[in-house]
Amino acid sequence: MIIPIIILISALLVLVVMYVLDDALRVMNERAGLAPGKGMVWSKRIVWALLLAVVAQFFIPADLFEPPPPQQALYNADSLWTGADTTRLTYLDKDQRELIRYGQELIRNTAHYLGPKGTVMQGTNGMNCQNCHLDAGTKPWGNNYGAVWSTYPKLRARSGKLETVAKRVNDCFERSLNGTALDTTSREMQAILAYMQWLGTGINKGEKAKGSGIVELAFMDRAADPEQGARIYSGKCASCHGAEGQGVLKADGNTYQYPPLWGPHSYNQGAGLFRMSRFAGYVKANMPLGATWNTPMLSDEEAWDLAAYVNSQQRPSKDLTGDWPDISKKPIDHPFGPYADAFTEQQHKFGPFGPIAAYYKKP
Ligand code: HEC
Ligand code: HEC
C-alpha cells in the first residue's frame, strides 16, 4: 500500500514541476519573440500514464489473479463441527452451486416439495428432514450430517448390506418420513447427495466430525417409565407438539410449524427415533426447542422417560422382516425380537439396558 502511494505522490509532484517548467518556457519564448515550442508533451503523457496505472491498481480486486479459496468446514469454539462455510459456495461453478442449494432446501423444506401436497411429488408424511437433522443437518449433536460423506458406503447391520449415502437417505424417506424412496437418478436425490458431499468438505475419509450425530446418554439403572414421561410431556412438550402429539400445521395447511411426535403422520416403527437411545439422546441435546448439548433443558432421566412415553403411542408400522439379518447385531434397544439373548422384548424396549449391554460385552 505504501509504495503505490509514494509513486502516486512523486508522479503528481513531477507533473506539477513539468507544467510549471512548460509554462515558464512558453512565457520566455513569447518574451523573446520566438515561436512557442511544443514543450514536454511526451514526457507529460508518460507521467500521466504512470499516474493512471497506479490509481487503477487500487480498484482492481486483489484476488482477481489468485485461485478461488477452497470450500471449508467450520467449527465452533468447542471444536464441534457446524457445517461447511456457505459464503464460499459463490466460488463454485453455477450448476454445482445451485444443486447444493437445492439439496439444502430439500432438507429444510422437504414437505413443500415432496410432502402430501408436494410440488415435485407426493410421497412423504409431511415432515422435513430438518425436523430431526437440525439446522439443515449442521447443529452440533443435533443429529447432524458430519459423519455421512466420510463414512459411507458402509456395511450396515440393519440391512446386512453395503449401503451408499443414497440408500441411507432413502431409509429415512421410507421410515422417518414414512414414505417412498426417491429414484436415485432424480434431480432431488442428486441434489441431496451434492449437499451431503459438500457438507463433507474437509472431513477425512473414515472420520466423524466432532459433535456429529446424536449424543449417547448413560443408561439408567431402572426401566424408563412411560407414566413419568407422560407427566413431563404435558409440562414441557405439549405446548408445541400438541396434547395428542399430532403437531401443528402452518397456515398453508401443508407444512408443520411443530412436527408430530406420534399418530399417522409421524415416523414409523422402523425409524431410528423409535429406538429409545436415539430419541432420548436427540431430545436431551435439542428439546424443548432452544436446548443445546451444553445448555440442555432436560435431565437424562427425563429424556429416557419421555422416550418411553412417546414411543408407546400409536404410529405407522413397517414391514421389518428384512431388517437385522444377523440378530446378534441388533441394537440392544431394538424393540422387536427375536434376539440372540434371553432378555424380554419389554426389557429391550424400556430397559434397564445395562444388563443387556453387559451380556454382549462379555468375550
Ligand atoms: C423423525 C426424525 C427423522 C427425520 C424426519 C429424518 N431423519 Fe434421517 N435420521 C434420523 C435418525 C434417528 C437417524 C439415525 C441416527 C443415529 O443412528 O445415530 C438418521 C440418520 C440419517 C442419516 C445417516 C447419518 C449417519 O451419520 O449415518 C442420513 C444420511 C439421514 N438420516 C438423512 C435424512 C434425510 C435426507 C431426511 C429427509 C428426507 C431425513 N434423514 C429425515 C431421524 C430422522
Ligand atoms: C417451543 C416449541 C417446542 C417445544 C416446547 C418442544 N419442541 Fe420438539 N420440536 C419443535 C420444533 C419446531 C421441531 C422441529 C425443528 C426444526 O424443524 O428445526 C421439533 C422437533 C422435535 C422432534 C423431532 C421431530 C419429530 O417430530 O419427531 C422430537 C422428537 C421432539 N421435537 C421432541 C420434543 C420433546 C420430547 C419435547 C419436550 C421435552 C419437545 N420436543 C418440546 C418445537 C418444540
Question: Could you name the key traits of this structure?
Answer:
14 helices, mainly alpha, two-stranded antiparallel sheet, binds heme C, Cytochrome Bc1 Complex, Chain D, domain 2, single chain, 42% helix
Set out the fold topology:
Blueprint: H1 2-31, H2 41-59, E1 73-75, E2 81-84, H3 94-108, H4 110-114, H5 129-132, H6 134-137, E3 154-156, E4 161-163, H7 165-174, H8 187-199, H9 226-236, H10 238-241, E5 248-249, E6 256-258, H11 276-286, H12 300-310, H13 345-350, H14 354-361
Antiparallel strand pairs: 1-2, 3-4, 5-6
Helix pairs in contact: 1-2, 3-8, 9-12, 11-12
Residues 128, 130-132, 134, 236-237, 239-241, 258-261, 267, 273, 282-283, 287-289, 298, 306 line the site of one heme C.
Report on the architecture of this protein.
- With 363 residues, this protein is mostly helical.
- The protein has three domains: 2-59; 73-199, Cytochrome c-like domain (Cytochrome Bc1 Complex, Chain D, domain 2, Orthogonal Bundle), CATH 1.10.760; 226-361, Orthogonal Bundle (Cytochrome Bc1 Complex, Chain D, domain 2), CATH 1.10.760.10.
- It is built from 14 helices and six strands.
- The chain has a two-stranded antiparallel sheet.
- Strand 1 and strand 2 (81-84) form a beta hairpin.
- It is elongated and about 120 Å long.
- It starts with a helix and ends with a helix.
- The mean pLDDT is 94.
- One heme C is lined by residues 110, 127, 129, 131-133, 143, 147-148, 168-169, 172-173, 176-177, 192, 213-214, 267, 271-273, 278.
- Residues 128, 130-132, 134, 236-237, 239-241, 258-261, 267, 273, 282-283, 287-289, 298, 306 line the site of one heme C.
